[in-house]
Amino acid sequence: QVQLVESGGDLVQPGGSLRLSCAASGNIFSINAMGWYRQAPGKQRELVAEVSNGGSTNYADSVKGRFTISRDTAKNTVYLSMNSLKPEDTATYSCDVQGTLLRGVRFHSWGQGTQVTVSS
Predict the structure, then answer these.
(1) In what order do the strands lie in the sheet containing 77-82?
(2) How far apart are CA 86 and CA 24, in angstroms?
(3) Which of 20, 22, 42, 50 lies 20 to 30 Å from 69 when distance is taken between CA atoms?
(4) How far is residue 23's CA from residue 13's CA, in Å, rounded to a whole number?
(5) Other beta carbons less than 10 A from residue 61's beta carbon
């Protein structure tokens, strides 16, 4: 089994910054991709950013130039640095991890989420 622990969510004023962290643990052989999704009340879940095992990244148009995703392969951890935060960034942010377990099967796990609130 794979466990994901997210942290870093907080209440911040518009224009502020936050950095989210997601650490994966368990019987993991390798991780192929890690990403962040978000969901606001009454809205559908959307992809914010993702990074592959090769280091390539992908961002939602709404966060390009403001958010940066990065990973520490040795620590099985992914980060999301968020700058110039806007009220519309308010949402529950969830970590998504895909990879292979020690027993040779693929896995796809989600974290419980961390709350980001942007308000004055």
Answers:
(1) 2-7, 18-26, 77-82, 67-72
(2) 28
(3) 42
(4) 26
(5) 6
Q: Is the pLDDT of residue 104 over 90?
A: yes
Report which residue type is found at 65. Answer: G
Question: In degrees rounded to 5, what are phi and psi of residue 75?
Answer: -100, 0
Report strand pairing: 77-82 vs 67-72: antiparallel
Rounded to whole angstroms, the Cα distance separating 68 from 110 reads 20
Q: Which two tokens stand for residue 50?
A: 């993702």
Q: Within 13 Å of residue 94, how many CA atoms lie on the same side as its CB?
A: 18
Answer yes or no: are the C-beta atoms of 118 and 15 closer than 8 Å.
Answer: no
Average pLDDT over residues 53-80: 95
- Tokens 């377990």, residue located: 101
Quickly state the pLDDT bin for 76 (edges 50, 70, 90): very high
Residue 53 vs residue 93, higher pLDDT? 93
The residues that bridge with 21 in the sheet, in sequence order, are 7, 79
Compute the distance between CA of residue 113 and CA of residue 30 in angstroms, rounded to an integer. Answer: 22
